[in-house]
Amino acid sequence: MEGANGYTDDDLLLAETLRWGVSRLASRLRAEQPGTGRTLTRMAASVLANLAHSGPLTASELANIEGLQAQSLTRVLNELEEQGRILRSRSDSDARRQNLMITDGGRDALREHVRDGNAWLATALRHTLSDAERGVLGIAAGLLRTVAEAEVTGDGGERPQATPARADGAAPAL
C-alpha cells in the first residue's frame, strides 16, 4: 500500500538493499583500482569521468552533477589543470564563463585509474554469475544510470534539470 509520501515499504526495502549492494561494490572497486601511476582522488576521477562522458562543462555544471557548490571544486580543478589533465577555455557565447575539457592526459589517467577495477569486476562477473545473470545485470546497469539521472528530490518533488539526460541513457566507453 502506497503511503502519503508516494512510496511503499517494499520500495524502501528495495532502496536499502540496492544502496547496500552499490555501496559494497563501490568500496570493492576502489580497493581493486590502485593504478600504477599517480593516483586520482575520488573527486578528480569523478570530474574527469564527467568531462569524458559529457564533453566540455562549466565548473557550475560539474558542481551540479556532483551535488556541490562550484567553489568546492576549485582546488581539484586547479590540480587537474596543473597536471595537464584538463584545459580551460573561454566560452564563445559568454566571455565570463569557462569551459572545462578533458585532455588526452586526463583520459589516460582516468583509464589507468579504472583499469584494475574493471579487470577485477569483469573476472568476478565471469566467475560468479551465469550468462543469463550477467545479461540481467547489463539491463540493471542501464536502469541504475536512469535512476541516477532522475530529476526528483528525496521528498518526491521535481528538481530543476541542469543538463539534459542522454537520449540513449548510456555513457561512452572510457
Protein architecture, described:
The chain starts with 8 loop residues before the first helix and ends in a 26-residue tail after the last helix. A hairpin with a 7-residue loop joins strand 1 and strand 2. Helix content is 56%, strand content 6%. The chain has a two-stranded antiparallel sheet. The chain has 174 residues and is mainly alpha-helical. The protein is built from six helices and two strands, in the order ααααββαα. Helix 1 packs across helix 5 and helix 2 packs across helix 5.
Write the layout of secondary structure elements.
Elements: H1 9-32, H2 42-54, H3 59-66, H4 74-82, E1 86-90, E2 98-102, H5 104-128, H6 131-148
Antiparallel strand pairs: 1-2
Helix pairs in contact: 1-5, 2-5
List keywords for this structure.
mainly alpha, two-stranded antiparallel ribbon, 174 residues
Quick take:
The protein is mainly α. The chain has helices spanning 9-32, 42-54, 59-66, 74-82, 104-128, 131-148, and strands at 86-90, 98-102. The model is unreliable at 160-174 (pLDDT under 50).
Helix content: 55-70%
| Poorly predicted ranges | 160-174
What is the CA-based Rg, rounded? 18 Å
Biggest sheet strand order reads: 1-2
Instruction: Determine the N-to-C terminus distance.
Output: 43 Å
The H-and-E topology, N to C, reads as HHHHEEHH
Mean pLDDT: 84
Overall body shape: globular
